[in-house]
């Protein structure tokens, strides 16, 4: 390689190196920043920490977690918040990058606008209605709380609850939820919410048949068409026969 | 240039180069189709490792290392540089974000093309022009007439012999730019 060529090469590389330091956002930045961060575009270390990438601790220097969704980074009230309820205060940890990315080139590789419920504090995680409004349809109007019985936290639909698995709601058994699940507690039920089934009535009929344990109705009666079914492993039948 | 030099030498060279371009576009398309675009981000790592591995031949040729069959190492150099370049090209995709990595990509591409000129074209073209000279001389043409008959082929050949003058300097440019890109990644990227 000739000396002249070496000098030309060296000069070119020096110019490129200088440009990297003068215009880092153009030379090495992976795309534009979001408009709100435009003034930071040539100050990489405003957000990045050497060798470890963008640093959440630097985000919260400007974006105080207690104010997110309520006040802007300069302390002004947010008139049109992006979410109906501020939730950043209820996050388990301040890992901003779990959801946010800034450079246009990085956003391309990351799922945008998808909230991950597992980032919430455990207590908040169980209080769906602190963020979500209950639907106003006939079914949901009867229910408050216990959303996770039917819905998971990844998607609202499909709701996976299958009532037949416990008790078939047929023509004779189509009451409102609270008739059986008092206080919208779907972990418990009672068959005595209906005038047809009174404790005395049920007790008498079962004693007549020699059945002494009858507090858990659906253990034997999975639908109105099963007047007398053996329970788990024929337990009930055996108890009766023994009598 | 005679049609035969184009058909027999330049065209096959173009096809091999075209194969690299087609493999790049196919790889990029597949990653997008399979929703695996994120994989492309990391293909730069194996690509870089392969290109560094290809450098073994250059070290052997300049006697920085003493062991290894040069012919085998040359084949290894050609294969790893081609495959490494393919991975880096897929890694680059068609996303224009920063200037430095794109300058590195352009330098790498020029490096690959100059390497292919040296490997595929040069020797075959030299044989072709030599064959033509002998053929014309046997037909009884004078030296001046032979020179005129093979003028364009000889000129093309002269241009191609300059490949090494491009290959080494552009490699240095590529190496420096690629190192700059790697340093910026290590400095700013969060490995998580």
Oligomer type:
heterodimer
- C-alpha-based Rg of chain B, rounded: 20 Å
- How many helical stretches of chain A? 9
Q: Mean pLDDT of chain A, as a whole number?
A: 83
Sheet with most strands of chain A: 2 strands, antiparallel
What low-confidence regions of chain A span 5 or more consecutive residues with pLDDT below 50?
A: 229-243
Question: Which consecutive residue ranges of chain B, at least 5 long each, have pLDDT under 50?
Answer: none
Q: Largest sheet of chain B, described in full?
A: none
Instruction: Name the structural class of chain B.
Output: mainly alpha
- Indicate the percent of residues in helices of chain A: 25-40%
Short précis:
Chain A contains nine helices and two strands, in the order ααββααααααα. Chain A is mostly helical and 243 residues long. The relative contact order of chain A is 0.06.
Write the layout of secondary structure elements.
The complex is a heterodimer of chains A (243) and B (192).
Chain A: H1 3-22, H2 24-27, E1 48-49, E2 53-54, H3 56-62, H4 104-107, H5 122-125, H6 138-141, H7 177-180, H8 199-208, H9 235-242
Antiparallel strand pairs in A: 1-2
Chain B: H1 3-33, H2 37-42, H3 44-61, H4 70-92, H5 99-138, H6 143-149, H7 151-160, H8 163-188
Word description of this protein:
The complex is a heterodimer of chains A (243) and B (192). With 243 residues, chain A is mainly alpha-helical. In chain A, 27% of the residues lie in helices and 2% in strands. Chain A has helices spanning 3-22, 24-27, 56-62, 104-107, 122-125, 138-141, 177-180, 199-208, 235-242, and strands spanning 48-49, 53-54. In chain A, strands 1-2 form a two-stranded antiparallel ribbon. Chain B has 192 residues and is an all-alpha fold. Helix content of chain B is 84%, strand content 0%. Chain B has helices spanning 3-33, 37-42, 44-61, 70-92, 99-138, 143-149, 151-160, 163-188. The model of chain B has no long low-confidence stretch (mean pLDDT 87). The A-B interface holds A 1, 5, 9, 12-13, 16-17, 19-20, 26-31, 44, 48, 50-54, 97, 103-105, 108-109 and B 37-38, 41, 95, 97-101, 103, 165, 168-169, 172-173, 176-177, 180-181, 184, 186-192.
């Amino acid at each position: 390689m000739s000396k002249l060529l070496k000098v030309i090469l060296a000069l070119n590389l020096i110019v490129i190196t200088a440009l990297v330091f003068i215009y880092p956002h153009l030379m090495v930045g992976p795309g534009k920043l979001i408009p709100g961060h435009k003034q930071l575009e040539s100050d990489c270390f405003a957000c990045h920490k050497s060798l470890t990438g963008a640093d959440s601790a630097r985000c919260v220097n400007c974006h105080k977690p207690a104010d997110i969704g309520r006040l802007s980074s300069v302390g002004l009230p947010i008139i049109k918040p992006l979410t109906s309820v501020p939730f950043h205060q209820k996050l388990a940890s301040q890992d901003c990058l779990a959801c946010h990315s800034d450079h246009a080139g990085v956003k391309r590789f990351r799922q945008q606008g998808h909230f991950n419920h597992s980032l919430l504090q455990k207590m908040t995680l169980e209080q769906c209605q602190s963020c979500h409004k209950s639907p106003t349809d006939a079914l949901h109007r009867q229910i408050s709380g216990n959303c996770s019985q039917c819905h998971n936290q990844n998607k609202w639909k499909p709701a996976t609850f299958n009532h037949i698995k416990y008790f078939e709601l047929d023509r004779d058994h189509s009451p409102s939820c609270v008739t059986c699940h008092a206080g919208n507690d779907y972990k418990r039920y009672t068959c005595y919410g209906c005038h047809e089934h009174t404790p005395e009535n049920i007790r008498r009929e079962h004693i007549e048949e020699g059945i002494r344990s009858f507090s858990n109705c659906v253990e034997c009666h999975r639908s109105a068409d099963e007047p007398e079914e053996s329970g788990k492993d024929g337990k009930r039948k055996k108890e009766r026969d023994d009598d | 240039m005679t049609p035969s030099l184009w058909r027999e030498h330049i065209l096959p060279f173009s096809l091999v180069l075209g194969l690299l371009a087609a493999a790049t576009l196919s790889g990029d398309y597949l990653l997008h189709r399979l929703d695996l675009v994120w994989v492309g981000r990391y293909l730069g790592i194996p690509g870089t490792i392969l290109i560094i591995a290809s450098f073994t031949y250059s070290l052997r040729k300049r006697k920085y290392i003493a062991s290894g069959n040069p012919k085998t190492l040359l084949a290894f150099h050609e294969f790893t540089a081609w495959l490494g370049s393919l991975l880096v090209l897929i890694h680059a995709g068609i996303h224009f974000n920063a200037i430095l990595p794109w300058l590195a990509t352009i330098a790498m591409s020029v490096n690959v093309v100059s390497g292919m000129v040296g490997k595929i074209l040069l020797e075959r073209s030299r044989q072709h022009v030599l064959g033509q000279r002998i053929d014309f001389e046997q037909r009884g043409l004078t030296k001046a007439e032979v020179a005129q008959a093979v003028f364009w082929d000889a000129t093309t050949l002269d241009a191609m012999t300059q490949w090494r003058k491009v290959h080494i300097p552009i490699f240095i440019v590529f190496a420096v730019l690629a190192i700059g890109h790697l340093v910026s990644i290590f400095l700013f990227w969060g490995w998580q």
